[in-house]
Protein: WLM-domain-containing protein
Organism: Lentinus tigrinus ALCF2SS1-6
Amino acid sequence: MSSPIIISVSHRGTTHPLSLLPHATLEYLQQRLEELTSVAPENQKLLFKGKQNVSSDAAITEAGLKDGTKVQLIGPTAEELGGLKATESEHQRKERILRERAQRAPVKVRSTGSSAADPRYTFHSIEPLPHLPNPSSARDLLTKLANDPAIRHVMNKHQFSVGVLTELAPHEQPHLLGLNVNAGQAIKLRLRTDRYDGFRTYKEVRRVLCHELTHNVWGDHDNNFKELNSTLNKEVAEFERAQAAGTHYLGSAGFDAPQSALEAEAQAYVLGGSRVLGGASTSSATDSPEERRRKVLEATMNRLRKEEQELEDRCGTSAPEQ
């Protein structure tokens, strides 16, 4: 008689040890997990070192599961899906009422926020690592990122959906700042300092998040990726500037029309007053206001290039093999 295989499946901070016979199928495993977590098999995503594209009637050993394997389960519960559908229905009802009001009495509205967010385009779950210090503080930071108005704006605009927003443990992957799993199935961010004595600054982590969100569309760090990533960062900066100014108008304030997404991103940061991005300036007292603006813009672009190169070097995401 074959000896059982012991695996551990983690789901939202809870670890479920399972004892399975080697010939047990993946379908059987999914049924067991549904009993434990209320996540239906069709909504389950299992992350482990092994073969991912295996039919449900294959044995667990054929998928690469063996004694001691650690598996991460991602997926919404039946209750959460019911709540999501109810939220979508309520959203549709409100949209209908607004349309009817606009048809009856059209008015000009001066708005400082984005249009109503689609509940599909969000982070569907937040999971700090429970074995690291201060998991409640990590959850607070992840929640702040997930609810950041500028991040929600770009996610809704570009129709980004992320299954799980979680963190990377510095001691496990010290070279990484971020990782996007399967184009949005999960995004993992480096929240903590190397010595675990605190957390990295919010804007540093948020910039990594924009980088990893770009991987929802593009796997490789090619020109397509760079253009979209710069666009996301520009839109975040512009959104915050517009909120502060109380308007959606985003002028160039003396700058020429940007020639690339990176230049547009740099302009947005300069106009938004993010001087820290510009670094040291070479302006002199004899420079005209236009020349000083040009130098600040150039310094900001150089700083953004360096930051983005570091993010690429410390990003664990790559395009899937063909």
Remarks:
- Helices lie at 26-37, 78-104, 135-147, 149-158, 202-214, 223-245, 261-271, 289-313.
- Confidence is low (pLDDT under 50) at residues 104-114, 248-252, 274-281.
